[in-house]
Design a protein that fits this description.
By secondary structure, the chain is mainly alpha-helical. The chain has five helices and no strands.
């Protein structure tokens, strides 16, 4: 059962997202968890702070596990190191009940999130677009007119409207 409409929207968004969008969603969720952990820390709510830090750690672990080191090369290796660093800082924040490591991770997440949000799929080139074999997708010849040299003589009459 849905807790609210936002849960249903989020599930729909996740199920229809491409891999780039999924990474963006993970960064957003992790950033929110760190933000919430900082608020709980400031208000002295230890259990809630710990819960949000654990949530952020789980997301960072998921991001690290999703790296494709074969295709990602040096970038994936550097991201793996960065995710490892962030996980250690989150654990440090939880053990020491300190805000500085959380602020550090939040800044890193913000930078990574901006970078991933800037990545777009390239537009399909005309050669990659599927061809549509329809007379309606073809340009009309300039000499086409009405009358004896009209559309019927060019083969368009068979595709005309009928009521």
């Amino acid at each position: 059962m849905w807790n609210n409409g936002q849960d249903a929207y989020l599930e729909s968004r996740v199920l229809t997202a491409d891999p780039l969008e999924l990474v963006n969603l993970l960064y957003q969720a992790c950033t929110q968890a760190v933000r919430d952990a900082r608020c709980h820390l400031a208000e002295g709510r230890i259990a809630e702070r710990s819960q949000q830090i654990n949530k952020a750690c789980e997301i960072v672990i998921e991001l690290a596990a999703a790296l494709d080191h074969e295709r990602g090369g040096e970038i994936s290796q550097r991201l793996a190191l960065l995710y490892d660093y962030m996980q250690r800082r989150l654990l440090e924040a939880n053990m020491q009940q300190s805000d500085a490591p959380l602020a550090d991770v939040q800044g890193l997440l913000s930078t990574l999130s901006e970078a991933w949000a800037g990545i777009r799929k390239p537009e399909a080139t005309p050669e990659e677009r599927p061809e549509v074999d329809s007379p309606w997708s073809q340009p009309v010849a300039q000499e086409a007119g009405y009358g004896s040299q009209g559309y019927a003589s060019q083969g368009y009459a068979s595709q005309g409207w009928s009521l």
